[in-house]
């Protein structure tokens, strides 16, 4: 039997943790009793610098069920991707595979059974993929589809309708640890690992408590992070646009020279104003995109740690690292 760890990033999740822990405990016990996973399997909550009682609840769960729940407390808020990465790296030497999922359990935990089966069948990575998006608004469905299409156009390998609900074997986790970039976008990095992978389909439920930690502003920032972290196509597009505008300017120059030589020059401010504003806007856009990449280079060269562990609650007690 394989040892499976569930890794759950948490940020201000005091409203959902009691119900989440109850459901996860039932699922783990069910899988253990059926012989699908070992008795050493457990759930690990990663507190990403929460400001509410999240860590207090995690500690209480560990004390009550030391053989079922562990906890990792980061020194400060590092963001969802870094918190998830921290949890995976913390457990990779203690399990045969780890399954990452969100604390709100919108991702159907019954899909874990099939994930474990696919892992036993030889797959190192099993992606949890939504079979439909009926619980989303029309706006969210449209923006989500647009996001995946844009990522694909930018040359980023992503799995459609997959977030961060996935199983990764210890070998895959070791491969993930080799990616040293500070700017993490795990949905784009994991497919780059390259080990055998498959998909498990499930229906996503509505959040049963609390508020979403990904409003529109954060979703847009997340999309920009993914594109600029994994693709240089935006810079190449700027180059192509520059070449196109230069070619058009040459054609227009020849056209105006001919008009001038044939005595048909017409003074007009509209075309001049339009040209100034259009070229000026494109220049600012280009500078902004290039600046985004320079900012990422700046952060990468500093080699700052992605996270720092404050406390690691494991079955042998709490210890600070």
Would you mind describing this structure in some detail?
β8 and β9 form a beta hairpin. The chain has 10 helices and 9 strands. By secondary structure, it is α/β, with parallel strands linked by helices. The protein folds into 2 domains: 4-213 and 305-319, Spore Coat Polysaccharide Biosynthesis Protein SpsA, Chain A (Alpha-Beta Complex), CATH 3.90.550; 233-302.
Percent helix: 40-55%
Per the principal axes of the C-alpha atoms, what is the gross shape? elongated
Q: What share of residues are in beta strands? A: 15-25%
The CATH homologous superfamily of the largest domain is termed Spore Coat Polysaccharide Biosynthesis Protein SpsA, Chain A
Q: Architecture of the largest domain, according to CATH?
A: Alpha-Beta Complex
> According to CATH, what is the topology of the largest domain?
Spore Coat Polysaccharide Biosynthesis Protein SpsA, Chain A
Count of β-strands:
9
**Residue-averaged pLDDT, rounded?**
83
Strand order of the largest sheet: 7-5-6-4-1-2-3-8-9
| Poorly predicted sequence stretches spanning 5 or more consecutive residues | 317-321
Major pleated sheet: 9 strands, mixed
* Gyration radius, in Å: 25 Å
Tally of individual domains: 2
Note the gap between the termini: 31 Å
* Highest-level CATH class of the largest domain: Alpha Beta
Tell me the number of helical segments per DSSP (H or I, 4 or more residues long). Answer: 10
SSE run: EHEHEHEHEHEHHEHHHEE
């Amino acid at each position: 039997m394989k040892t499976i760890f569930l890794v759950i990033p948490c940020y201000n999740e005091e409203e959902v943790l009691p119900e989440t822990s109850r459901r996860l405990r039932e699922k783990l016990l069910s899988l253990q009793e059926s012989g699908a996973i070992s008795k050493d399997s457990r759930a690990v909550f990663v507190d990403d610098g929460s400001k509410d009682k999240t860590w207090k609840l995690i500690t209480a769960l560990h004390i009550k069920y030391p053989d079922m729940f562990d906890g990792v407390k980061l020194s400060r808020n590092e963001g969802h991707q870094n918190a998830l990465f921290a949890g995976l790296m913390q457990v990779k030497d203690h399990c045969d595979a780890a399954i990452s999922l969100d604390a709100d359990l919108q991702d159907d935990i019954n899909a874990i059974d099939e994930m474990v089966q696919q892992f036993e069948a030889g797959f190192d990575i099993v992606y949890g993929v939504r079979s439909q998006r009926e619980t989303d608004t029309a706006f969210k469905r449209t923006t989500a589809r647009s996001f995946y299409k844009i990522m694909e156009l930018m040359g980023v390998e992503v799995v459609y309708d997959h977030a961060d609900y996935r199983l990764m074997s210890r070998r895959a986790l070791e491969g993930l640890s080799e990616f040293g970039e500070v700017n993490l976008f795990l949905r784009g990095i994991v497919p780059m690992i390259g080990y055998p992978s498959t998909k498990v389909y499930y229906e996503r439920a509505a959040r049963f408590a609390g508020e979403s930690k990904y409003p529109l502003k954060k979703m847009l920032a997340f999309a920009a992070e993914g594109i600029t972290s994994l693709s240089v196509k935006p810079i190449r597009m700027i180059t192509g646009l520059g070449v196109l505008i230069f070619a058009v300017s040459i054609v227009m120059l020849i056209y105006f020279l001919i008009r001038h030589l044939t005595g048909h020059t017409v003074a007009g401010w509209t075309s001049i104003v339009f040209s100034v504003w259009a070229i000026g806007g494109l220049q600012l856009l280009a500078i902004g995109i290039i600046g985004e990449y320079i900012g990422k280079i700046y952060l990468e060269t500093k080699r700052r740690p992605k996270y720092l562990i404050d406390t690691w609650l494991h079955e042998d007690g709490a210890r600070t690292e």
